[in-house]
Amino acid sequence: MNIENIVREKAAGGANTSSEIVQIIHAYSDGKINDEEITVWLKAVYDNDMTDEEMLSVVEAMVTSGERLDFSHLEKVVVDKHSTGGVGDKVSLIIAPILAACGLAVPMISGRSLGHTGGTLDKLQSIPGYRIDLSLEEFRRTVEMVGLSLSGQTSEICPADRKMYTLRDKTGTVASTPLICGSIMSKKIAEGIEVLAMNITVGNGAFMKTVEKAKTLGKQLKMAGEQFGVSTNIVYSRMDQPLGREAGLWNEIQESVSCLKGEGEPDLMAVVTALAEPVLKHASVKNPLSAIEKTISSGSAMAKLEEMIETHDGDPSSLHNGDTFHTPPFEKTVEAERSGVVRFMDTEKIGWAVNSVTVFDEKLGRRIDPSGGVRFEIKLGEEVESGGALAVCHGSDKETVSRACRQIKSAVKIEDSPFRPEDVII
User: Fold this and answer.
1) The one catalytic residue among 113, 149, 183, 356
2) 282 and 355 co-located in one domain
């Protein structure tokens, strides 16, 4: 393999062959080429895009770099859900137990925060005792016993993606559509699923800033799904403000619990329902909307979440005593400078502020602070008085919390005229 030729071809705007793509990705996964060498190729892909055939080769390379699970013996519809990310997006924590309570099997390999977006794995890690590093066999067994498992990527599943996922964040190549598609679909295909509920977020707080770009990704995801036998249902949703009221780690776990108790915010539950309904129809569940509601009213979805947490060595009782865990040492209110209606929120900027109090330290680099987070008291279209609370920031470091408050304050625009935000589902 001549890496320089492969990179040169891509940098010149040409297309790499399937063999070349598989070779270079496998070589990186196996340690035969280093971060610097693969970064040059990643940036060439980011700058020059890829053909559909190249994108499918990326998926193939990722999948074949490791093992592939098989749950066909369960005689259940095997499903996963994925989102392209956002701020306050805790949908996975809500939809997974709902689907499991409806009789589906949900093997979900989750990721950490990427760029300004939050990560399900970081949120799960805030649950006392919860193990995010199950072995492949433990992951398989949990899905078989409980019906769902939310865990981190094992060394056996798509090791090439696991390695490249972190590097993309460091090298500014996160927003490449074919790389996003390759990363998402390879893990889902390797999980052994037959149905994927895919949420593509669109807006100023998403990687896809326009509907057009989102639909380009959606087309590629569906194509990859068809190629590898995964039925892919796509929901496009707006990410022009945080989803729900909470953004962070432990506070998002608590909001997820509220949703499973029937107290969810309308925009958050709209996304959950839009994603779950077509999957349940695929699984021949009668009256999907009623089935979703029944898992919440009966407590069966909550019971599934608790059972999974216990199987992951976590403390399920912590879910119902949220205030006694991860109490933030510092808390500060973001106050409105004037009265009026919230007309705009720079959600990407808000996301960076949230991540600064939860998963990233300017001096120490990556770290997890479960006490960190933001509660949004006011959302788009809502009125606020001068000096009223827009949001409340909290965490373990006073200076970082204060800085996050300033960032969030500068990200919110208040005007006089009434404003009705568009529906969260596009």
Assistant:
1) 183
2) no
Are 21 and 1 spatial neighbours (Cβ–Cβ below 8 Å)? no
In the annotation, is 187 catalytic? yes
Residue 178: which domain range?
Answer: 72-320
Residues 270, 132 share a domain: yes
String of b and e for 117-153 (b: at least 16 CB within 10 Å)?
bbbbbbbbbbbbebbbebeeebbbebbeebbbbbbbb
Handedness of CA 142, 148, 154, 156 (dihedral sign): positive
Q: Within 13 Å, how many C-alpha atoms sit on residue 299's CB side?
A: 3
Residue 180 lies in a domain: yes
The rounded Cα 33 to chain-centroid distance in angstroms is 29
Q: Is 117 a catalytic residue?
A: no
Which one of the listed residues 29, 57, 65, 83 is annotated catalytic?
A: 83
Count of domains forming the chain:
3
Q: Two tokens at 352?
A: 């960076």
Q: The domain that contains 91 carries what CATH number?
A: 3.40.1030.10
Out of 26, 81, 245, 304, the active site residue is 81
Residue 82 is a catalytic residue: yes
Same domain, 147 and 276: yes
In a domain, 422, yes or no: no
What pLDDT digit, counting tens, does each position of 5-44 carry?
999 999 999 999 999 999 999 999 999 999 999 999 999 9
Catalytic one of 29, 113, 117, 120? 120
Residue from 90, 140, 187, 394 carrying the catalytic annotation:
187
Per-residue pLDDT of 38-95, as tens digits, reads 999 999 999 999 999 999 999 999 999 999 999 999 999 999 999 999 999 999 999 9
Beta bridge pairs of residue 330? 395
Catalytic status, residue 83:
yes
| Catalytic residue status for 168 | yes
Structural domain ending residue among the three candidates 320, 346, 366 = 320
Which residue out of 26, 57, 76, 80 is catalytically annotated?
A: 80
